[in-house]
Design goal:
Structural class of chain A: alpha+beta
Radius of gyration of chain A: 30 Å
CATH class of the largest domain in chain A: Alpha Beta
Number of helices of chain A: 7
CATH architecture of the largest domain in chain A: Alpha-Beta Barrel
Oligomer: homodimer
Number of domains of chain A: 2
Strand order of the largest sheet of chain A: 4-9-11-10-6-7-5-8
Largest interface: A-B, 76 and 76 residues
Distance between the termini of chain A: 88 Å
Chain lengths: 278, 278
């Protein structure tokens, strides 16, 4: 077969590579010109070399070191087949990591939107809320004084196992009562929001996937500090008593970080809400 | 809220990071212990710091430089939202690159399997073949003498645009006739195999997606050299004439690289086949 000769510039265009890259590939012996003019030292390529790029380009796209690609070129068919199968597995793992990261960042974004939704703080409002899914665990002896314990790490691990990363705040529930002070409040459950209420058989028995039902809620949002906690709960109780609402659920509490900087004091928005009937 | 203190080892376990990484994060101010014992210099962490990792971990998973993550921590909500949206786009592009590379490598693998399927070379066999999809273009004035021209680069670019990378050999068709010599053979079409025969509206008019139909074929496979080409075609003609087969198609020729090494002479297996009725 007679073949056209391509200059390095033409080959660069055909192969979608830079001239500099082609020179480097030649230097390390990965992809060499078919012909070098002995007078001018110009490199010339032929079209039938293009198939070599079928192996080089995708391996390079997945960050295989060039020396490893060079070794792969010289493998026997069987060895190359096995090598490529291993590369495919690696790629699938890389894709999984990226997909999980994307999900996780999209939840940080949702969290930002969520924080911005509250224009009015420290005031009880009555509103309809949609259903949301959570994974929860019983909170044995956990009070407002020690809620931020490693329990959340466990919940996060569970939610990651069931549905990738999810960073949408940290929640807790307690029964609606007339407490004497914040110290008396004992949590019933700790929870974190998840995307789905699909049951997974593999979930350890101490964890439960459930929903915060849709309905009418009395709701207050405040920036966390120990005094604001008790104040806000008292406002919620006062509203319910004064307006004679019937209470249909526990109190749901959700902590959401206001920022992610370790260089500012930690600060959270807390949403406290209870389902009502009126 | 009272909080438990974790040693650096405990925090490493909770966060799924190494102690060395946590020390480095402290050093560069990305993730700092809540408390350092002034006597022992031991670092202590608290659980409420964990949410900071919600931002750090996924950004790190997509290779965001640590200094850039540090800058992201201090962005305002709106800025952080926009930053994360840009990261998500980048991640989606990275996933696309990986998926294309995976497809491409899986086709190199298929090619290897394909080459290994031929145990008997240089002999005409009659066999049933399944349907396969190709993208083809008219071969104006291209003969066996100059087939490996940049036309294949064009076809490859088309197939990449329609269905990701595809490296499954290089094909051509010509009409079945009694030629005087190989020089007289003029190709009708050049083609490359593709995964799907789904028509795409965006395909330039000179290209066509079609199929090599299923049916009975007379087929010969040989290792390419100019003499073998003519010899093999002659064997195919002889068989068809002697066994009085009716010819139902053009001759399909498919070149498949035997290896991908630039350090060995280029070598191809060529499959030449024609659909018959008997």
């Amino acid at each position: 077969m007679e073949e056209d000769l391509y200059s390095i510039g033409e080959m660069a265009k055909l192969a979608n590579l830079s001239v500099k890259t082609l020179r480097y590939y030649d230097q390390i012996g990965l992809f060499k010109p078919a012909y070098v003019d002995p007078k001018t030292n110009y490199r010339y390529y032929v079209d039938s070399q293009l198939f070599q790029l079928d192996l080089i380009q995708p391996l390079k796209a997945v960050n295989t070191p060039l020396q490893e690609i060079k070794l792969a070129q010289d493998l026997s068919s069987n060895e190359l087949y096995d090598f490529l199968s291993r590369q495919e597995l690696k790629i699938q793992q890389q894709i999984k990591v990226l997909q999980d990261a994307e999900k996780s960042l999209s939840h940080v974004k949702k969290n930002i939107c969520f924080s911005e939704r509250y224009t009015e703080l420290n005031k009880v409002i009555i509103q309809e809320e949609g259903e949301s899914c959570i994974v929860q665990m019983r909170a044995e002896g956990i009070s407002t004084q020690n809620v931020m314990t490693k329990s959340y790490s466990q919940l996060k691990r569970i939610s990651e196992a069931t549905d990738g990363f999810l960073n949408n705040g940290y929640g807790a529930t307690f029964s609606f009562q007339n407490y004497a002070s914040a110290e008396d409040i004992l949590y019933r459950h700790l929870f974190i929001p998840v995307l789905t209420n699909k049951q997974t058989a593999s979930l350890p028995t101490e964890f439960e996937i459930t929903t915060i039902p849709a309905g009418k809620y009395a709701l207050i949002v405040y920036e966390f500090n120990p005094e604001a906690y008790w104040e806000s709960y008292s406002k919620l109780v006062d509203t319910i008593v004064q307006q004679q609402f019937t209470v249909l659920s526990d109190v749901y509490e959700l902590f959401m970080p206001i920022h992610y900087s370790p260089r500012k004091p930690e600060s959270y928005l807390v949403e406290m809400k209870i389902r009502i009937f009126n």
